[in-house]
Design a protein that fits this description.
Blueprint lengths: L3 H13 L9 E5 L2 H11 L11 E5 L2 E5 L4 H11 L6 E10 L9 E10 L17 H13 L4 E9 L8 H9 L4 E3 L2 H10 L4 E9 L10 H29 L9
Length: 256
């Protein structure tokens, strides 16, 4: 296997237990197997890759993939998905709210992400901004508005560091950067998606408020957030991508 194309065509099934022909042209990405289970239950579709690093389920032309946690996995799945040349990829992730105006259960459509994770530096120079595909976010925004829900826009800080909630210096850094939330994947998905010429976006759910000790995520609080908002989070993503697919509008890849 001497070319990237040969590698990713071999590795996507190896990581997911899913044949290339079983992937839809539109992709939902998630960090949670639970989202794949909810998707499969909703549509009565099988879950593939139960014993593989990543799991998938497909309904019509839409596939959901649980790629795991962190920027390294985010970069890996965006590389591997280039094997099928998807028309659009939407990340359904969770994030920690940084601004005082951000509350648990809020949805965030990032206008950009700060590349604090380092992984994306292997794709493009660090000065290149991590941006979503505007037209994809427009579809998602329209769906949220139609449900009479409120959402936020702003800049996300993406970090490789998982345990930082105790570190006051890191928190001050987040405040100084004026970001609305922090996560571990968004910037990587935006940059690796751009490098692979894949239209990409992210709809993030605020799951915790880690700037205060009482707001740090726990097992119980995460369970509560998932129980209250996971189905809605998933449904907005499904509706956005299915509508995008049925309308047949192409999201062009613009170089910058």
């Amino acid at each position: 296997m001497e070319t990237k194309e040969a590698i990713v065509r071999n590795w996507l099934p190896r990581y997911t237990g899913t044949d290339l022909c079983d992937f839809g042209e539109y992709i939902l990405l998630t960090n949670f197997k639970d989202y794949v289970v909810r998707f499969a239950k909703k549509f009565g579709t099988p879950i593939r890759g139960e014993n593989f690093p990543m799991q998938t389920s497909t309904f019509e032309n839409l596939t959901i993939v649980n790629f795991g946690m962190g920027s390294a996995n985010a970069a890996t799945i965006m590389d591997l998905l280039s094997a099928t040349s998807p028309k659009a990829v939407l990340f359904l992730g969770k994030c920690g709210g940084v601004k005082k105006s951000t509350e648990i259960g809020h949805f965030i459509l990032p206008i950009a992400a700060i590349r604090g994770e380092g992984t994306s530096d292997d794709y493009l120079p660090h000065q290149v901004p991590a941006l979503p595909s505007f037209k994809l976010h427009k579809y998602v925004s329209d769906k949220i508005v139609k449900t009479d829900l409120e959402y936020r826009t702003g800049v996300i800080y993406t970090t490789n560091r998982r345990v930082w909630e105790h570190d006051q210096k890191f928190k001050e850094k987040l405040r100084s950067l004026r970001v609305i939330a922090v996560d571990m994947e968004t910037a990587t998905i935006f940059v690796a998606g751009f490098a692979n010429e894949i239209a990409r976006g992210a709809l993030l759910l605020v799951s915790d408020l880690p700037m205060t000790p009482e707001g740090v995520k726990t097992t119980d609080s995460d369970r509560s957030v998932s129980g209250s908002f996971a189905d809605l989070h998933l449904q907005i993503g499904i509706d956005s991508m299915l509508e995008l697919g049925t309308q047949g509008e192409q999201i062009k890849h613009f170089r910058y």
